[in-house]
Structures are given as C-alpha cells and as structure tokens.
Design brief:
Blueprint (H helix, E strand, L loop, with lengths): L26 H14 L5 H12 L14 H14 L2 H20 L38 H11 L9 H11 L5 H5 L6 E2 L4 E4 L10 E4 L2 H17 L16 H17 L10 H13 L4 H7 L6 H6 L5 H20 L13 H6 L1
Antiparallel strand pairs: 1-2, 2-3
C-alpha cells in the first residue's frame, strides 16, 4: 500500500492579505464573500441578496459570531424574527441566501472554479441545512379553467393595443409565451430580443450552469414585444419591461401584487371560483397546452423544465419549429376565448375596470 504523502504548502489555500483570517471569519464575512462572488460574475440576483442580508442578517445578533460556531438554533431564532416582520416568502428567501452563502465558502475549499479569494476557515458543515424550508409542503394546485381564463384574458385585453400599463403588458406576454417565470421574463434586456428572427431569450440567473432559454415569438406575442421595445427605447432603458426608475427593470413583486389585485376583483365580481396568484399562470398554461394536444416534451421545453440526463446529453435537435407551432396553437385558443360569447357568469370587464373598482 502506498503511504499518503503530506500536503505541500502550495496546495493549501491561503488567506488573502488584509482579508479575514481563519480565526476571524464571521457570519458577516461569509455573507460578504458570497455577495462579492455574485457581483463579480455579474449575477442579477446579487442586488436582491445583498438587500436581504443588510435588512435581516447584518443587524441581527448572529452577524458577528464566528461562522464555524453558528448552529441551526441561532439561525432559527433569526428566521422567527423575520417571520414576525415580513412574509413567509421573505423568510424562505433569507434561509435560501444564508444556505447558499455557507455552501459557497465550504465548496471553495475543494473546487478551484470558485473564486480563490475565500480564505482558510474551520467551517465543516452548513448549519442552515438542518432547517426545513418553510411552507415546502404547501404545494399549490390552483389553475384557471377555460371559463376563468376567459374572464382573466378578457380583462387584460380590455384596453387592446392602447394599454399604457406595463404590468398588464407583462401579464399578456407571459401568458402568450406559455407561462414563464416572472423574474426571468422581467429581466429580459433589449439585446435578448430579435424581432427579425422572432425570438426572445430568457436567462436563469439562479442556475449553476447556463440555462438560457430561447423562445419563438408567435404573431400576437411579437406585436406585444415590439410595442415594449419601442417603449424601452423611448425611455432610454436597456430592459424590455422598463420601470419608471432610470434604466431599471420592472420588479417581479409589482407584477405579482397586481395579479393578486386582479384576482380579488374577479372573485368579488364572482367571475372566478377562488383567488389565484401569478405563479398559477404557469400551471394554467401548461394544462391548457396539454388539453390542446401539445406533447409533454414540447411543453417542457417551452417552460424550460429540466430534462433528464439522456435528453440533455444526446438530444441536440433544434425543436424551435415545434415550439413555435405550439405557441401559435395556444394564441389561437386565447383568441377564440376572446371572440366567444359571454359566459354564464356575465359579460367580461371593460376598459377602466381597475379605476372603477378602486373608487
């Protein structure tokens, strides 16, 4: 048996001069190293992660504890405080960012692809792993049937192409594109749109590998995107869904809250059976595509679902034509809903519905 050789000093990671040493690495240092790594690679989620940490972790009692001595109970106490101040979703986000930060510094000791500025440390395990994800068992199954989708889609199209509200435009585009993730859709830049080729590219900033998602634009979607491109250019913004703030994209929370507002209106008017959220659009569109006979693998590629290893490794066929046909079929279905006669629940909302409702 060949005896193991001692590690050479050159193979042992060393701390960066002026940075935190092995004895000084605190919870705040771990978070700063992670945020610095995100910002260094240009991740769009870096700003949101930094805000979460500055809001809930840095002012807390664990911020200056030694990172190697932090336990799950300490983090759980902070999460209880977060839950008393904010929503369940925010609490899940805080847990997720802390979990990712610890994973980053632990993995950096063994993976040279990670930024080498992470110093030596004594962190042997991730204390956040022991804390279950809040609300993970609350799996939603809400989706809109054709009758409910008729009222929702009619409401979004009440003002036609004269609609100035970018939130309504975002909801239209999302439904026309088959139900994309809100943050990915809203962070589309003008450079990700090719009107000549009729495509739009969405990027998944959370994935560890490249999950760029190129979608074909069916006719109605192309009209909506072209309007948004002209609007963004006139505002001098690089984002397709430009917000009123200079050169910033519309926030996902704004569209999500607006969807909830629409849901309350439709429930109040007894046009839908129960409340719904933005994330239910994705479930609605896939169910609708399935009802139209679109195959499962085509639906998965439209929604950018992760395919199994066999398909990703061996299947490199460009299925853009099949996805384009599926989205055209979906647009035709939506147009048929608009042209159909009013349902038993009553006529669809007209332009100005939101202003009338607020009054």
């Amino acid at each position: 048996m060949i005896p193991r050789q001692p590690l050479s000093q050159s193979s042992i990671p060393t701390a960066k001069a002026g940075g935190p040493t092995q004895e000084q690495l605190t919870v705040m240092d771990v978070c700063d190293l992670y945020i610095g790594w995100l910002e260094g690679k240009g991740a769009k989620r870096a700003r949101g992660c930094r805000w979460i940490l500055q809001k809930f972790i840095y002012p807390s009692q664990i911020a200056h504890l030694r990172a190697s001595e932090l336990n799950a109970g300490d983090i759980m106490n902070v999460l209880r405080d977060v839950l008393s101040l904010a929503s369940e979703s925010t609490c899940r986000t805080v847990r997720s960012v802390m979990h990712a930060a610890y994973n980053h510094v632990i993995r950096a000791q063994f993976d040279r692809r990670v930024v080498p500025q992470v110093p030596r440390h004594e962190i042997a395990f991730n204390p956040v792993t022991a804390i279950p994800i809040l609300g993970r068992d609350h799996v939603r199954s809400r989706w809109l049937n054709n009758n409910e989708l008729y009222y929702f889609w009619s409401l979004l199209n009440a003002t036609g192409q004269l609609c100035p509200d970018v939130r309504i435009r975002a909801l239209r585009v999302d439904i026309l594109l088959g139900g994309q993730l809100c943050d990915q859709l809203l962070n589309v830049a003008l450079g990700d749109v090719d009107l000549n080729a009729g495509t739009i590219t969405l990027h998944n900033q959370r994935a560890r590998w490249d999950r760029s998602h190129v979608l074909p634009l069916a006719p109605c979607a192309k009209v909506e995107v072209a309007w948004l491109v002209n609007r963004a250019i006139s505002m001098g913004s690089e984002f397709l869904f430009a917000s009123k703030q200079k050169n910033k994209a519309l926030q996902a929370s704004s569209v999500s809250h607006f969807t909830t507002q629409i849901s309350r209106y439709l429930v109040e008017k007894k046009l839908v059976a129960s409340p719904f959220q933005f994330r239910d659009i994705r479930r609605t569109t896939e169910t609708g595509l399935a009802s139209l006979g679109v195959q499962r693998d085509v639906r998965a590629r439209i929604l950018n679902h992760h395919l199994d290893g066999h398909e990703t490794r061996f299947d490199h066929w460009d299925d853009t034509p099949s996805r384009r046909d599926a989205l055209k079929l979906w647009e035709k279905h939506l147009n048929c809903l608009l042209s159909s006669s009013p349902r038993a629940n009553g006529a669809p909302p007209e332009a100005g519905w939101l202003d009338d409702w607020k009054q």
